[in-house]
């Protein structure tokens, strides 16, 4: 666009056409506002013609998870509780995107209230994996991942409380990045669990995440980041459940020069995460559960009720355990620049599956999806998932962690991983219609 | 002692004699180590003779609440769970006292695990009010308050999670001071509720609290503090329950020049306090409750079990409400240097009482004791109770609050209150033996 070869109007038209052509079977979008997007694109082009350049997002079509408020555009949180809800104001992150010239084309399918990593329980139905529409996108930012993976938009915004950006990124074969806790304001983002909620971005490459991150965090553009040879630890944790051996092999091969570091005590963090996330989530929804339980998806309601029964003293102990874990992570990130591990223990499970076999053991799907990502929400450190290969034709993600404030180094290195790995599936063929 | 008129050995002997003469009916002490105290006193005198002056606490007898660890001296937490427990190390606050030359003469009766403001449930029986041994000291630092009020020691150390220093100070007619949250390390102090626990001091005057505070906080001695004319707000809150009208009258008269300020929204803080304190307390005791419930006092066990049932989401909401209250307190302490209000709504109730009448309404004794003090544990700001008068021959305390870091101003002003009030009962006559 800077060279005058392409206009924002062209790009937005392509995005809208692509959504129209591909989204039927994928259900990545719950709302598309073509008219507003075309208007904004024309305005962006007029500005550029007048010599105004708002930066690298100027004229770029962006999709926003439907848990994030957009002024004048329906925002339903994936829930009947918010059917037809039209916010009066943009969330801070949306406002920053618009100020940077980005064009919001629509809102993407979210697991109801972002309360689930499977991405298949939403008022508007499950989002579907572009690599196999019978399979989950993962969630809760499933629509954002599918929209980027299918090439409908180059960039999408999501939220990540236990992995909700990284999990669908891994299962759909795109890059999903959550900056450090607090780096991007959550004002206007419907809360899931306030001490764990992060705003994140999904894009085709880590390089593309950089400008969006800087805009969302309200930072001045970074100067060229020297990556050099970061000290990378490939973590071998006791995270439950066991990781699929093929997935482990792909991630191991993606970091041939990393030092293998055993990091125990991760298994118990899953209960720590559950106690904190559940208690904080129920604090948000207690009144809705009491007043209008019938408006919840039944599975979400069941899970909320269970969460409401977690005792306060377990929350207190979990908060203590989190502090201790943060200390251990800080010590590890003093010794290593980056930590590498799988993003998700398995490739995308079928939509609706609630348990599966991992290394010969039957485990709940939610545990298999969350166990490698949720510790880094407890720690509050930046984390990115990058495509690292494939198993059975389905994408596998590798996860990289760094210390807060070192996001630029993380993103610069993450793209090297992508370059090293030659087994990442390329953009999928257009989906073949509804799965059987 | 600096003038050579008095020795530490003399002072400690007087304290020990006074304890021997007075403590039978009062039960302020659970452990007295006369031999160790006399040895430490001789050492303090020898040091002074050799030209070493450790400061204002050099040679001063001090009593320590039995929830605070003392190396080689039994520390039972008021509980059969710790019968005969002899710690190997001093709590940080005790170590600082000893390094400042203070002489630990013994350990004072605490409500079991400091879990109760009545001071009448302890493995070693209730502490008794020197003004009327049939009445409560208040708690949980009841023994420390009684020991100072009866003149057995000039200084005692306590802990304050919801008022446990200030309440017994008010009911026994002495000064009780809790510095800001975190100002005195809690290492070696058995936890009650970790986000609310404070170490505090009890003495005859606020002036006497100053040197102890500086030692406990690890500060260099303060230079002369100019109080000037602080802006004082006399708070009229909706704290439950209503305050006894006679108590209100005494406190009002103690601050004739204060501006009356209505401060609503305090009533609901009592539930906020209960949710946080209960959840944190049960997190400490859950394993003991499961393993050996019979070792608890039955009332303490009942209260713990109730606390264990508080849901996590209520803890989360309480933590949010606390944050909002902290903001309101900070705003108020921008406008006023000091906030004044009653310490306790009623004079000392009879030992064992569990409800009483306040302003014509029947209320639980614990609520009547805690409702004016516990908000300042939520806020974490310094608070002191000073004797302000009497009702029916029983002491009434006035409470003063300031911003964190302004403890010296608080203490300097608190002694003015004492001087203004002429109705505070003087030191009680030696108690007349066991109550009927």
TrEMBL record, chains A, B:
Naturally occurring in which organism (per UniProt): Sphaerisporangium album
Gene Ontology molecular function terms on file: catalytic activity
Lineage of origin: Bacteria, Bacillati, Actinomycetota, Actinomycetes, Streptosporangiales
Amidase domain mapped to chain residues: 10-411
Protein name (Swiss-Prot/TrEMBL): Amidase
InterPro entries the UniProt entry points to: Amidase, Amidase_CS, Amidase_dom, AS_sf
Ranges for region Disordered: 113-143
